[in-house]
Design a protein that fits this description.
EC number: 2.3.1.-
Shape: globular
Strand content: 25-35%
Protein name: GNAT family N-acetyltransferase
Distance between the termini: 37 Å
GO molecular function, one term: acyltransferase activity
Number of domains: 1
CATH superfamily: Gcn5-related N-acetyltransferase (GNAT)
CATH architecture: 3-Layer(aba) Sandwich
Order of helices and strands: EEHEHEEEHEHHEHEH
Radius of gyration: 17 Å
Keywords: Acyltransferase, Transferase
Mean pLDDT: 94
Helix content: 25-40%
Low-confidence stretches: none
Enzyme class: transferase
Number of helices: 7
Length: about 210
């Protein structure tokens, strides 16, 4: 399947000054930018900086960033699901995962996360894809935000909805292990019915096993 990537950008005015939301950004440009030391949700900043540049080099990989001049202060990643997850079992060429989204604490609550998702979805090529995201409460910064699980879940849902993603039920054991965890997805306008059916089969693998 051909992976087209059309660059889009917007300027977001925040109380801390204007931020550029842009992407997909190629790896050579990501390498040239600084990576904020507060981007620590998934791994140490230097390792995460390398991880997003590696993703940008993948045929299907997409990295969109929030940039404060020469500094990356937020990002979102899109790539094929991890081979160990059930979402990769169908080997669907038109199913990609919003793998990570992170914004430094200073810019949280200023619309950066929502803008990252809106700019991501400006690319018409994504109408050929099912975009999924799996939200697990153990990845959330409950301590740093002072929010409880349900308050954080509400914020995550609103942010994902800004990109057109909506809640989908599933019997996936990890998602089912806590009621705050959830699967969200956006099915592109040009996704064929047989792909939607395949996605439904991945969502409910235990339907006939009672």
């Amino acid at each position: 399947m051909e992976h087209k990537k059309t660059y889009n950008a917007l300027e977001l005015k925040t109380k801390h000054g204007p931020i550029i939301i842009e992407g997909p950004v190629p790896s050579r440009e990501l390498k040239a930018l600084e990576f904020h030391e507060d981007l620590v949700a998934f791994r140490p900043p230097a390792q995460q900086h390398k991880a997003i540049t590696d993703i940008a080099d993948l045929p299907e990989g997409r990295i969109l960033i929030a940039r404060d001049r020469n500094m990356i202060v937020g990002y979102v990643t899109f790539l094929y699901p991890d081979p160990l997850e059930r979402w990769s079992e169908g080997n669907m060429e038109n199913l990609i995962e919003l793998g990570a989204i992170e914004v430094i604490p200073k810019f949280r609550g200023t619309g950066v996360g929502k803008s990252l998702l809106r700019v991501s979805m400006m690319d018409d090529a994504l109408e050929d894809f099912i975009v999924i995201t799996t939200e697990y409460y153990w990845h959330w910064d409950l301590k740093g935000t002072g929010l409880n699980v349900w308050e954080y879940r509400k914020i995550m849902e609103k942010m994902m909805q800004a990109g057109g993603l909506e809640y989908y039920a599933t019997d996936d054991p990890e998602i089912s292990s806590h009621p705050a965890n959830c699967l969200m997805a956006k099915i592109g306008k040009r996704v064929p019915p047989e792909s939607v059916q395949q996605f439904d089969q991945l969502r409910f693998k235990n339907r006939y096993m009672y």
